[in-house]
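Whether sequence alone determines local backbone shape is best considered at the level of individual chains. The sequence in question and its structure tokens are set out directly beneath this paragraph.

===
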Amino acid sequence: MKFSILIVTFNRKKIFFECLQSISIQSQVVPFEVIVVLNGDLTNLDKYKSNFPQFKFIHITQTTKANARNIAINKAQGEYLYFLGDDCILPDNHFKKINFDLNWDVLGGPDLPSQKASNLQAIFGAALASPLCMGPSFKRHSRHSSYENKATEGQLNIGNLWFKKSIFTEDEFKFNGLLFKNEEHYLLKEVLLQNKIIHYDPNLFVYLERTPHFEKLGAALIRSGKCRALTFFTSPNKMDLIYFSPWIFLALIFFNLFNPNFFFMTSIILYIGVIFILGITTIRRPSLYFVLLHFFILTCYNIGLIKGCWISFGNICKKTFIKI
């Protein structure tokens, strides 16, 4: 078996069915299997089995996604493991784009807005793919970059991620089952410390249906910022300080609110102007929403960073007092 596609799902409906359909219509390049872990949910199981009898469906008592993925790994027979999000759609001939002969241990690509995305969802996707908004993490959501054979964990996401199975079977890595989010970034950091090779291919993209709701997007961004801070304090790396650069934006805003300054005000106006121009080049039209989304995303992410730092500071204090 060349590779195994591993999907963990809970209570997905229409989009998950489309995800499975996009796999079933792929051109058969090499033998592969699909393992779906139903994480505590039996909804529509009979429908899935009748429409996709060639796939394996495993029902487990609800647990963290990290634990569910570890269970899927133990069931997989493939030489390579492909972790696919249950809300992702594969483009045509997706597997023909993968070069298994290259010397990589981990391979990832971006997620792009769904082909059926609304105008608002497309703008959401464009904002998440903006380096002015997401910093180095923009590569997770954009195909407008180059192939990298020394990728970082910040460029990859678990919804579109390949591993050599030997990383789990021979090197004995696994996802931290206690984590509810960002478990792949902890794992990728550990993998990098062991000098494993991580590649990023912008052409190896999947389609993802973006949420059209500001409250859901904001909540996801807060969680992302919180987990990024927790990850940093758990495994500090000076290179990861770049993920705290949005604090510069926050500092500029607060400084101008309480002490207006021509220099800093000009900086913000220039920033807005560059975003506006970027919007014209990416979504092909001027959009105030695109500008506002940058501020919204950065604000939510900063809230998450502050929450994560506060929790980490509290944990450090507890350990210090316990030692004393």
